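Worked example 2:
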Amino acid sequence: MMADREVSERRRAYVIELYRAGRTSGEIFEKLKNDGFHRSFIHRTINRFSETGSFKDRVRCGRPRSVRTEKVKKAVAARVRRNPKRSI
């Protein structure tokens, strides 16, 4: 299964491809609305491309999210089940 980030980047790349071909945001929306593309997604993607020259995510500040894989979540749940009074 493909990760959400990869799908999102492919969708953004497709919008930018149409934009570079000379289509307006309205024309792009009319073409893609039946495929689940929202008008705001198209506008944000075009604005991001105009400002940064890229369609990729911008760098975010702040602490990165902790590791929350299924393996780690199951391990924590198992520890809590063994001793519910334990503080993790």
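The CA atoms of residues 2 and 8 lie 10 Å apart. The radius of gyration is 20 Å.
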